[in-house]
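Handout, section 4.2: multi-component inputs.
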Amino acid sequence: MENKQMLMIPGPTPVPESVLLSMAKSPIGHRSGDFSKVMEECTSLLKWLHQTESDVLMLTTSGTGAMEAGMINFLNQGDRVLVGVNGKFGERWGEMAQMFGMEVEIINAEWGKPLDTEVFREKLEGDKNKEIKGVIVTHSETSTGVLNDLETINKYVKAHGECLIIVDAVTSLGAVNIPIDEWGLDVVGSGSQKGYMIPPGLGFVACSKKAWKAYETAKIPRSYLDLMPYKKSAAKNTTPFTPPVNLIFGLQTALRMMKAEGLESIFARHQRLTAATRAACKSLGLPLFAPDDAASTAVTAVAPTNVDAEEVRGVMKKHFDIALAGGQDHLTGKIFRMGHLGFVCDRDILAAISSLECTLQKLGVEGITPGSGIAAAAKVLAES
Amino acid sequence: MENKQMLMIPGPTPVPESVLLSMAKSPIGHRSGDFSKVMEECTSLLKWLHQTESDVLMLTTSGTGAMEAGMINFLNQGDRVLVGVNGKFGERWGEMAQMFGMEVEIINAEWGKPLDTEVFREKLEGDKNKEIKGVIVTHSETSTGVLNDLETINKYVKAHGECLIIVDAVTSLGAVNIPIDEWGLDVVGSGSQKGYMIPPGLGFVACSKKAWKAYETAKIPRSYLDLMPYKKSAAKNTTPFTPPVNLIFGLQTALRMMKAEGLESIFARHQRLTAATRAACKSLGLPLFAPDDAASTAVTAVAPTNVDAEEVRGVMKKHFDIALAGGQDHLTGKIFRMGHLGFVCDRDILAAISSLECTLQKLGVEGITPGSGIAAAAKVLAES
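Output:
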């Protein structure tokens, strides 16, 4: 049906009506006092969301632009960096670091499996001359639904003492606890079309004091993505370049909603939706691509063996107006991904799972017990 | 009055209600067939607007990001480049080119005066060894309301034969004729919050075949702002990174409106509004900062001698709900700027001029004939 689509991809995520309506307001001048007030509130709420007293800067970019800024402002050409790669986004950061002339050491894991934290420990403990300048980790690997063990990897980075940890939190921020200051994370990048519940177009970079220290000796040429002008402007509740005023109106509304819900409730909700989705898939005999102990709370990837993943997506879209994501690169056609990130409630999961059950029946998948998926999901939701 | 503000700054410009409502639609997946159709239409209409058969690429950036992409993809470190500087934006491109290690030669003109095309001719004709690789020109200098003579400067660039012309058309695109293919302009950068009639958040870069030839030897490290992935993706009606879906919904609506109005009508309207504004200011004894033969059709800067520019802005805002822009850098407090770019009609100019007249009366400015400003504006509008 027209205008009836339910977005269950891992971004863009569903946007609350109140946010959409905020964005439909006429723009105001970005150098006005009224806009400064909006910036002030957003900056304060962004710090709350990021659990940090340090800077959270707002860029007119996608999440990829934010991650590039997070690298080139704090690392140098020739710097030895470890990049965890177990999916498409980790791969992208490795290529990006290479493009900027860093000496990149890829720490691979199979797509669908979490990064082995022990490899990071060995490399970091073995680096007696402190040559490793950065560790780049994708927290929630959107392409596979794997949540990497950021807390443990970060402990080894802290024990190393010298190098920075640069985190792709694009689909984990607002979906799982990332206490930036408590853990001492240095650079955390994210994008608006994910846990923030607003459309794409804004990138965010949180930067620690240690990162700013590294900035002083960072020499990669940069201008639009140079973070210092953003930091200086943010201190005056403004921006160095014209910001996307209407998206920021949306951000203000969305952050207020998040604040009202509270961080713990937000994280618990994502946990609950993930558990319900996974329980349902198991009951329906649908193999999950990521293991239980490394499950992203943003997206669940399913690797069906007795039905074509693309056919599932097709029926879900055509008959139930639900958009699921497919696999990327070599996973194309092998998995489908169900997003449960941001503005998603329990009812949405029940609707999606019951539609999935019906889809499997339409496709003539054998051996499933009708109602078993929704029963499993409902049990999780009822008990949590 | 709340929600009654009339934006007369040179960006963000007023946004049509239909565009605002397009942006308030729920986002759809950026990798979906439905979104590809939107991209296809936008790309086609962007080429129409730019009067080019070559590429017009869409980036999630401000206009500054688009201009950076326009430089670093086609020029190299050490390249000799001429940068015209007669205002804040020209100055920015000079600093940016320097940041990326280019050998920058600034061609200055007084702020408020147009660039001297003869200096470009001399430099380019004198460059027998073809060392000049780029000429960077701000077409409409937003900070002063001066329209530089792009056509003439470009003729000297064409006569030189080797170097590229890189144009900041941020406030001229859609406000004055820029026949990109006919003139053979190489790189033309712009931003959404100007003639496009949509909020900020999208940058555009038009690139000629000659520019793509230069791309092959361009070595400045870049990733998010590397234009080749945008070109390749655009050919498939998609984007390399998540695009600002809702802004692109707005863009689609705005470009349809522009197509319906027609390029000639759009340019004639901007010409008419500019002429009316300038005639009114002259009648009111308000000195215009830019000369008549170099007047931007996007913004008119006024340098009042018998009243404080900031007081004028204050009364216009407080009593008439009209936002004017102030002066930047050393022009702060010395000029005010009245935007008439994008979604602005004849009635808006009459409202603004009559409010300005009333403002001058409130401020006790002597020697003005009440009604003379609006009479002069009305005459222009009635006769054109």
